[in-house]
């Protein structure tokens, strides 16, 4: 992974400058140098680094292990600890965060460079595997939808609709939520930037529908389906619309945002043309 984005967490200015100079010489981009855990989290949220090089002992209430643990909950990063502290208790705490390396100070350039290259290589492999899983899950959802079409076009009985939609919602959640949590940084902790999260969600759900075969146009707080996957068949069978409604409402619930989804369908001169509009509740 050439030109990796790397965040340095080090409260000794001279040491931090030396590390930054080495990284830039090796072709990497240093996205920031943090002297505290709190500052590291703030920089990471803004820059989304590929790798974090973290000293463990820092000034303030949060040490390097705490910072790495917090950042890794928000995004998929690799971490290498650079520390003079090699005691067993510190190592046990660091190990819980699943770092890519643990380098004892003082270290030489070859040791640091080797650990960085291994960490970035493993991250690249992991990302490729996750992308492959995402494609397989998306294909599974698409296959579920398309394989259901013959049954739906034959006029599913009303009493069977509820059970079918519950099964579809369960299948959709099992396959799509891992990708959703990872890409929107919702693996463990809720986000407190509601407006930004909503915008990222609109992009995510628009891309999902597009990948499923719909023609989609995203907007600031809504997205439009300009061409339906099922074409004119959706006019005669509302179960198709209910499946789309289930995907939008369920995925919006995953965000943890307080609000609602409004669905208008068969708009304009060329039905079906649907609009999904997201409204956040006013803060009290």
TrEMBL record:
SMART domains: REC. Coiled coil: none annotated. Residues 5-120 form the Response regulatory domain. One of its GO terms (cellular component) is protein-DNA complex. The keyword DNA-binding applies. The keyword Glycosyltransferase does not apply. It comes from the Archaea. Pfam families: MetOD1, Response_reg. GO terms for biological process: regulation of DNA-templated transcription. PROSITE patterns: RESPONSE_REGULATORY (PS50110). This is Response regulator receiver protein. The lineage of its organism: Archaea, Methanobacteriati, Methanobacteriota, Methanomada group, Methanobacteria.
């Amino acid at each position: 992974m050439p030109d990796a984005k790397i965040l340095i967490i080090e409260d000794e200015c001279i040491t931090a400058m030396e590390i930054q100079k080495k990284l830039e010489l090796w072709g990497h981009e240093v996205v920031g140098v943090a002297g505290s855990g709190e500052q590291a989290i703030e920089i990471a949220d803004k820059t989304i680094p590929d790798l974090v090089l973290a000293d463990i002992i820092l000034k303030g209430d949060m040490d390097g292990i705490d910072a790495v643990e917090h950042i890794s909950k928000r995004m998929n990063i690799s971490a290498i600890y650079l520390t003079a502290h090699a005691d067993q208790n510190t190592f046990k705490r660091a190990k819980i965060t699943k770092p890519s390396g643990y380098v004892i100070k003082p270290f030489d350039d070859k040791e640091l460079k080797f650990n960085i290259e291994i960490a970035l290589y493993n991250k690249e492999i992991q990302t490729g595997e996750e992308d492959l899983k995402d494609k397989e899950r998306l294909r599974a959802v698409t296959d579920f939808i398309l394989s259901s079409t013959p049954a739906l076009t034959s006029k599913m009985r009303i009493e069977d609709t509820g059970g079918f939609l519950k099964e579809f919602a369960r299948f959709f959640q099992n396959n799509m939520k891992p990708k959703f949590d990872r890409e929107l940084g919702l693996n463990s902790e809720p986000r407190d930037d509601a407006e930004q999260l909503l915008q990222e969600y609109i992009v995510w759900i628009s891309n999902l529908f597009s990948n499923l075969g719909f023609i989609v146009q995203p907007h600031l707080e809504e997205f439009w389906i300009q061409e339906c996957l099922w074409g004119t068949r959706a006019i005669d069978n509302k179960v198709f619309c209910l499946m789309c409604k289930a995907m939008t409402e369920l995925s919006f619930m995953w965000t943890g945002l307080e609000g609602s989804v409004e669905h208008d369908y068969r708009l304009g001169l060329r039905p079906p043309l649907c609009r999904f509009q997201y409204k956040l509740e006013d803060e009290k």
